[in-house]
Amino acid sequence: MTSGQIVALILICLGGAAVAVQAPVNGALGRSLSSPLAAAAVSFAVGLAVLVIATLASAGTAPVAKLAGVPTWQLAGGLLGAFYVWAIISGIGSVGALTALSAIILGQLTAGLLLDQIGAFGLPVHPISLRRVAAVALVAGGLLLSRG
Fold it and tell me: Apex CA 132: angle with CA 126 and CA 133, to 5°?
């Protein structure tokens, strides 16, 4: 593994930890607002403000100028992110953080397995193998055990 890959994995793990903390924080916001949907909107608004400021500070307006040429399907990431945030806010209060995050991870791995198989969205193809299916199955088992 290269040093660049190690750094990428560390950053991704930290992102995963941020998701673990984000879920109950957003859940608390949903309870405070009495609306998971409003909490998701507020969460995205705060994130948007931070990202706009960071983008302008680091790259100026050049990336924004390219937005008109981006294929429409590439904007679906925002819709998917909004759905994820709303879903986790809606469910974490009833199943708890561990189970909610286990379910999210199982969904991510299952989708990732299929996306890798077909090389979706320009990803390199990584065929489904027994080993990769076993990895997903172990997480499914973890989800079931998390309810104990």
Answer: 125
Token code pair at residue 137:
């199955």
Residue of 137, 44, 105, 64 whose CA lies nearest to 97: 105
Q: Which two tokens stand for residue 115?
A: 């996306």
Residue 122: what residue type? G
Closest CA to 88 of 135, 136, 25, 145: 25
Two structure tokens written together for 126: 């990584």
3-class SS at 1?
A: coil
Q: pLDDT for 5-28, tens place per residue? A: 999 999 999 999 999 999 999 999
Q: What are phi and psi of 129, to 5 degrees?
A: -135, 165
pLDDT, tens only, 78-102: 999 999 999 999 999 999 999 999 9
